[in-house]
Each structure stands twice: as structure tokens, then as C-alpha cells.
Amino acid sequence: MKYDELRENFITGLSEFYSNNVIPPRASINMRRALTEHKKRLDSKGITYSETYTPVEEPRVKELEVLSYAFPTKDVSEHFDIATELTDGKCGIRRNDEKDNILHLQVIDRRDKEEGDSNEGEVILVCPNCGSRADADTLAGGCPMCGTKFQIDGLYPCVNAYYHRPYPLPSQTDDATVDRFKLAIKIGGALAVCLGVYSFFVNFIPSGRLFQSLIIGAGNVVMGAFIIILVVYAILTVIFAGRTIAGGVKVAADTLDMAGANMSKVRTEREVRKYDLAFSYEVFEGKILSAIRTIAYSDDRKNCGLYIGDDDLTFMDDLVDIRYRGASKFEEATLTGDYLHITMTVYLDNIYYTGYCFTQKREKFIVSLVRHKDAKTSSTFTAYSLNCPTCGASYDAVLSRVCPCCGATADVSGFDWSINRIVRVSNE
Fold first, then answer.
1. pTM for the structure as a whole
2. For residue 148, which of 30, 56, 129, 215 is within the disulfide window of CB 3.0 to 4.6 Å?
3. Cα distances (angstroms) measured from residue 351 to each of 17, 31, 85, 87
């Protein structure tokens, strides 16, 4: 498949990033910053983070074309046994609910690249600090000679977002049936023995006939065990089915709640393309995820150019892992003055670290984004490398809203999407 090498290299790099601090190859510029901020948050709390991707017998690799006006986009997926583990050395938490998970990579490319063009990651660049020459993919993670990290504009094709989820509808296994039957034997056997002992004494005390009472007691044990085991097994099966149905209802309710996300692409593109024909929902989705992670893990949100709201986001100080559940639901779009406002519900599984304890929560973040109606989706623009509109200097608007050269304040929403509201809604 076209993106086999990209997929394999990215997954390998992602699994090694938290130990070697080298950005996965082909990560988009937005994702690079989000990963870097995540690593900083974990290090500040003394948390060791690892994520392993163990191949399953049937990897079922797929590349599905996603209809996108400006950027050729593919959903590249593969099945793994994915385990995520966080620990502070004393306590920890592990995500590994299912043995079969689907890892989705959102791969975007540029439509203006002609067929036969060389891979942009193979372009040779020069480190501005030590003069070392290396390909763009290598330098994206920092110069291998001097360690200098510097900004490299977006490379294409790249992984713009990733998420993984359990493979749906786990089946009831034979092991579960055997376990229930074994439990039924234990419970039924114990009850049958009690019944036999009781019937023995009931017959022996008034009659004094030992042999007859033993025969009656033994007979009740055998017959009682057979009947009781069947009854107990039936009860356990009903209880198990009830729990399965209850779980299914919860999953179904959650699925229905997320069902609107399937229409979000169409509805969002319909609203935004009134002003921006090059708008790509896939690029937009990736920016939302990277922005949420960058804002959540930032230690200076007041100066973060991606966030222009005034919500109390102190709850994010304890966030140590944000897992996207693969769905963002369009809520509304409004035009206020010259600015377009989009409200989305983003579905997440989050882990918090509070008081030296880890807590996992299934949550929804209601996120409001704003951008000037005349701004256009660009394959090269990013808030992480902003040219000051006053003096032209290039700086990282995520780290500072103020230009370090001339002191002018830049409004990122005039060029790209900024978040002006985040509301947390817990599902539990």
C-alpha cells in the first residue's frame, strides 16, 4: 500500500517517543508540538509513560480514501494489541481493556504536489546552529549532531492525527461459559451437600435408622447437586446476560450520543466553505486535537496563542493522558461580526493524576473555535511558526501572544482557528 512505510515508521517512532524523546517521523507540525507538551507535563510530574503496539494475528491493514477538497486524506488503520501504562514509581494505571484495538492514522497530503515528486522528508536541510546536513525527517526531531530543535514547516504527506479504539462488539468466549459452569458446580455442590446432611438428620433423629437415613441423604446429594447446578448455572447465565445487556445499553447510548459525529464532516464543511472553499474537515479535526492537547499540557495558558478564552481550565493541570475516541460532533456555526464561530463536541477518554493517584474518566469537551471569515485553510500556515504582521519576525505564537521583536500582540484567530471556550462534560 502507498503509505506502508510511513505507517510503520510512525508507529515505531510513536512507541519510542516517550523514552527517547525523538518526534515520530512524518508527524504534522501541530502534532509535534502536542507531543512535546505532553512529554513536558509527564516529566514535570515524574510520570513514566509507555505505549506498546503488539501485532495481532490478523493486522487487517486498510487505507480508506476520505473525500477532501483541498488535501488528499486517507484513514490508515491497523489492528494491534495496544497497552498504555503510566506510573510514578509507586502507583500506576494501565489501559489494555481489549486485546484487539484499531489504530487509526489520519494521513494528509498536498494536492499541489505533482505525481513523481520526491518525498518532502527526503529534502536535505542545514542545521542553522552547527551546519550539520540531514534530511528534513531527521531534523524535524532535532539536529542529530548538536541537539538543536528548530521549526520546520509542515512536511507532506504527514500524520495529522491518530487515535485508537477497541475493536467493537467483543464476543462471548467459551472460557466464560466454562468459568460459569465451574462456579455453578462449586455453588451447587456445596448446597447439595448441605441438603444431604439436612435430610439425613431429618430422617435419622426421629427414626433412628442409620442406613436408611444415609441412603436418603446420599440420594438427595446426588439429585440435589444435579438440579441445583443446573439452576445455579441458569441464574448465572441470566446475570451475565443482564450485565452484557446493561453494558450493551451503555455502549448503545454512548454510540447514539456519538452518532451525530458521522454527519459532522458534511455539516461543518457546508458551513465553513461558504467562506473558505479550501476548507478540509480532516485538517480541522487534527488541529482541534492538537490544540486541545497543547492547551491542556501547557504550563502558561494565558500566553498560549491557541487559546483566547477566559474559562477556568485549572482541571487540565492534572491531565496526563488524552485519548481521542474517534469522533467530534458538530453543534453549531455562527457569524459574529467578521469572525466565524464553530462549536464542536469532542469525545475523549482522559487520565488525571491527582494526589499521587491516577483516575480514568470518559468525558466530552465542548469546544468553541473562532477564525476570521476571510482566513483560508493553508497547507503551510501554522500558529507554531507565525510571521508577525507588524515587523515580519517569525516566532512561536503558541508560546507567546506577543512578538519578541517588536512587542506587537498577534491575534492568531485572524489567520487560523483559535479556541475561545472549553467546557468539560463527564459521562460518568
1. 0.69
2. 129
3. 19, 19, 11, 12
